[in-house]
């Protein structure tokens, strides 16, 4: 492990060079050790659905992130979850990272009741299929619709995360987060949202995330929290080309069409009760019928 212990004297962060053959080989051995452990989550563990190459790659990314922020690799693996194909932090882990980084005092939270929420307008999005033009790809787009949320019986609680740098008295505050904002952004009314049942906890998580993004983005490395990812409204459009092509391959041309049986545009349609030439030919001797002057074999 001596090859990996290159320290940046300014920040005391262990760095790893993917392009150094010695470091890369050492990291591969470390990753295989984690991949064969029972303590790591499934996406880092070798299994029938997760081959060794994939598990090793996931472990290497997690260890690289751990080295950058000075955290334990196992903690990173336990608290980094892929949501919609993107890695996201556990909010509790992000708060713990800020509190233990050594640069700031522990985060604190100020709650204020701003009175009744009242009626709040918010926007919902319905997916509308839009076919492609001139043979182009089709896609889903979100059609906006404004609705009114009745919050006359709900308190509009505001939360602000704040702390100070060690050795300084300047207070660093996050952007205020309140229930009205959660309704307007669609977090409160989203299906399966915890905002209605765990309002203060969700306010705490969101305020802490906003504080980190403002004052210590290097700790989150630009990644959102799990709660933020669940609250995000769907994108404006979704490319479904692969799905459409799959359905076409599975369902198209299942039946056989005999083109010879279909009437052509130049031939007049024949009455249904009038025998066709094909019907008349059925009474005529064919190639396999016995000849008139010969035996029937």
Automatic annotation (TrEMBL):
Listed Low complexity bias regions: 276-297
Region described as Disordered: 248-297
Organism: Bacteroides fragilis 3_1_12
Name assigned to this protein: Recombinase RecT
């Amino acid at each position: 492990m001596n090859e990996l212990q290159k320290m940046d004297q300014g920040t005391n962060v262990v760095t790893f060079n993917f392009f150094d053959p010695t470091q890369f080989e050492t990291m591969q051995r470390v990753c295989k050790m984690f991949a064969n452990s029972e303590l790591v989550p499934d996406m880092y563990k070798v299994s029938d659905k997760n081959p060794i190459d994939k598990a090793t790659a996931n472990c290497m990314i997690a260890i690289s992130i751990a080295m950058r922020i000075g955290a334990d690799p196992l903690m990173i693996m336990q608290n980094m979850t892929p949501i919609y194909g993107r890695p996201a932090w556990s909010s509790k882990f992000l708060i713990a990272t800020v509190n233990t980084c050594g640069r700031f005092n522990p985060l604190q939270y100020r709650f204020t009741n701003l009175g009744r929420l009242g009626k709040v307008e918010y926007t919902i999005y319905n997916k509308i299929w839009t076919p492609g033009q001139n043979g182009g790809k089709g896609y889903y787009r979100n059609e906006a619709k404004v609705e009114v949320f009745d919050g006359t019986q709900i308190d509009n609680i505001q939360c602000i995360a704040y702390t100070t740098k060690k050795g300084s008295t300047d207070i660093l505050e996050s952007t205020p987060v309140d229930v009205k904002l959660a309704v307007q952004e669609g977090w409160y009314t989203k299906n399966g949202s915890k905002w209605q049942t765990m309002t203060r906890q969700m306010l705490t998580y969101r305020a802490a995330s906003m504080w980190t993004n403002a004052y210590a983005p290097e700790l989150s490395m630009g990644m959102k929290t799990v709660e933020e990812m669940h609250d995000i409204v769907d994108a404006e459009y979704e490319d479904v080309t692969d799905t459409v092509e799959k359905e076409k391959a599975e369902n198209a041309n299942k039946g056989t069409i005999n083109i010879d049986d279909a009437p052509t545009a130049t031939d007049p349609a024949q009455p249904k009760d009038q025998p066709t030439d094909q019907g008349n030919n059925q009474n005529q001797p064919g190639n396999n019928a016995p000849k008139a002057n010969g035996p029937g074999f």
